[in-house]
Amino acid sequence: MDKLIIEGGVKLKGEVIISGAKNSVLPIMAATLLTDDACLIKGVPELRDTNTMVKILRSLGKGVEFNKGMVTVATLKNTNYVADYKLVSTMRASFCVLGPLLGKLKKAKVSLPGGCIIGVRPVDLHLKGIKALGAEISIDSGYVLAKAKKLKGTHIYLGGVYGSSVLATDNVMMAAVLASGKTIIEAAACEPEVVDLAEFLNKMGAKISGHGTPTIEIEGVKHLHGATHTIIPDRIEAGTMILTALITKGDIIIKNVLLRHLGALIDKLEEAGVNIIKTDNSIHVSYKRPLKAVNITTLPYPGFPTDMQAQMMSLMCVTPGITIVTEKIYPDRFMHVAELNRMGAHIQREGPHAIVEGIEKLSGAPVMASDLRASASLALAGLAASGKTSISRIYHLERGYENIESKLEKLGAKIWREKE
Ligand code: UD1
Q1: What is the pLDDT of residue 413?
Q2: What is the DSSP letter of 95?
Q3: How many Cβ atoms sit within 10 Å of the Cβ of residue 276?
Q4: pLDDT 10s digits, 180-224
Q5: 147 C-alpha to center of ligand 1: Å?
Q6: Please, are residues 4 and 409 in contact by the beta-carbon 8 Å criterion?
Q7: Which residue of the set 39, 96, 116, 190 is catalytic?
Q8: Mean of all residue pLDDT scores within the chain
Q9: Hey, which residues does 347 pair with through a beta bridge?
Q10: Substitution site in 88, 158, 166 for ligand 1 pocket (most atoms within 8 Å of beta carbon)
Q11: CB neighbour class for 289 (10 Å; exposed up to 12, middle 13-18, buried from 19)
Q12: Pocket flag, ligand 1, residue 158 (CB < 6 Å)
C-alpha cells in the first residue's frame, strides 16, 4: 500500500483541467447493459472505481475496452444476470447494475453492497421503486434477487428519511425505460449526474422527461439501441480544486467546469468573501484576503453537496471565526474530524454537527484516509500545513480523483508517494 507525502506551505498556481464525473460515468456504464448494441462513452476518468465497473461489466458478459478516456462496451455473450459479491462489495455504486439487468433480462441477482465508513447506507428505496414496477424481490445469502414476467409503468414516490437518493433514482429510471406504459418518479434526485444518465438513456432511445426536477416521467419503449456520449465534468473535483487555491493562498484557473453545477459552493465562498472570476467553462480563483467563517449545511442538489463537506471543513479550519457544519445526508460522515484535529485543528463533533474554530496554521502530521472525500480534505489540509503530512490508505483518493498527484504537482505542490 502507498502513502502520500505532502510538504505543505506552497501557494499553488497555474491551470488545471477537470476530468469527467465519477458519479455520472458509473451508472452510465451500467446503462449499457440495457442494449446488445455497442456504446461509446467519452471523457471517462481513469479511476479505481471506473476500472471496477469495467470488471463488473465484463463479468456480466460485456466486452469492454478502456483506453485514453474512452470506454467502448459491446456484447460478447449472453448477459449474465449475477453481479458477484467480490466486485459489488468493493464499490457501492455497482449496485446500480440492478435496474438495467432487471429492465433488460427481467431478472437480476446482485450482491447487497453493505454499509461503509460514512454510514449504514440502506438500499430500501432502490427496492421499493423496483417492486413498484412489478418485480418480485427476495433476499438470499446476501444477494437481492429481482424477477418479473414483465415490468409495468407506475407512480412511485422515492423520497426517504434523508431526502432523495441518487443511485435509487438511477436504478429505478433504468428499470423503467423498458417497462410497458408510463412511470412517474416523484421525489427523484435532481443531481446533474442523474440528468447526465437520463440524457444518455434518451440517446439510446428512451423517452425520459423532467430529469433535473423532482418529478421524472418515463414513457416505456420496447428496446434501446447503442449510443455515444461524453461525460459531464466532475463538479466535486472542480470544487476541490477551488478550495485548493484558497487553502494554499494560491491562484488557479480551473478548466472544463460547468458553473451551473457549482452554485451552492460558489454562493458560500462569495459569502466568505472570495472573489471568483467565472467564464463559460472555467473558473479563476485567486486568494486575495483572509476569508470569513461561514456555516455549512449539506443537502441534496442544488444544496451544498455532502461530497464537498470534508474539504470545506479543512478550509474553515484555517479561517478565523467559528463555523458550524451540519451534515444532513450522512449524519456520521465525520471521519476526517479526528485526523484534522491531529494536525492541530480545533473541531468538536456534536451529533450531526461539527463546530470548527479557525486557527492560524495547521501542522503536518501522519494521518489516515478513511474514505474518498475525507482523503481529499486531508490532502488539502496537508497542502496548507507547515511541515510534512503523510496520508496512509490513499487508495481511497484513487477511487475518485484522476491523476491527482500529477495535477497538484503541476500547480507547484511538493507531493510524492512512498511505500507504507
Ligand atoms: C451518491 C453518490 C455519493 C454521494 C451521495 C449523496 C454516486 C456513485 N455516489 O451516493 O458520492 O455522497 O449520492 O449525494 O453517485 N438512502 C436511504 N435508502 C436508500 C438509498 C439511500 O435511506 O435506499 C439514504 C442514504 O443512506 C443517504 C441518503 O439517502 O442518507 C442519500 O443517499 P444516496 O443519494 O442514495 O447516495 P448514493 O446514491 O449511494
Answers
A1: 98
A2: G
A3: 18
A4: 999 999 999 999 999 999 999 999 999 999 999 999 999 999 999
A5: 24
A6: no
A7: 116
A8: 95
A9: 356
A10: 166
A11: exposed
A12: no
- CA torsion, ordered 192, 237, 57, 92, to nearest 10 deg: -80
The number of the ligand 1 atom at minimal distance from the alpha carbon of 127 is 23
198 phi and psi angles, rounded to 5 deg: -60, -40
First to last CA, the chain: 6
Q: Domains plus CATH for the chain?
A: 2-19+233-419 (3.65.10.10), 22-230 (3.65.10.10)
For residue 223, give the 3-state DSSP assignment. coil
Minimum CA distance residue for ligand 1 atom 35: 165
Say if ligand 1 is within 6 A of residue 168 CB.
yes
Q: Can you read off the three cell numbers belonging to residue 221?
A: 419503449
Average pLDDT on 79-105 reads 93
Q: How far apart are CA 75 and CA 38, in angstroms?
A: 7
For residue 407, CA distances in Å to 12, 13, 34, 247, 400 come to: 11, 11, 35, 16, 14
Which residues are paired to 73 by β-bridges? Answer: 39, 64
**Residue 360: exposure state from Cβ atoms within 10 A (0-12, 13-18, ≥19):** exposed
Is pLDDT above 70 for 263? yes
Beta carbons within 8 Å of 161's beta carbon, 6+ residues apart: none
**pLDDT at position 114, please?**
64
Query: Which atom of ligand 1 is the closest one to the Cα of 93?
Result: 8
* % pLDDT > 70, the chain: 99
The residue-averaged pLDDT of 237-259 equals: 97
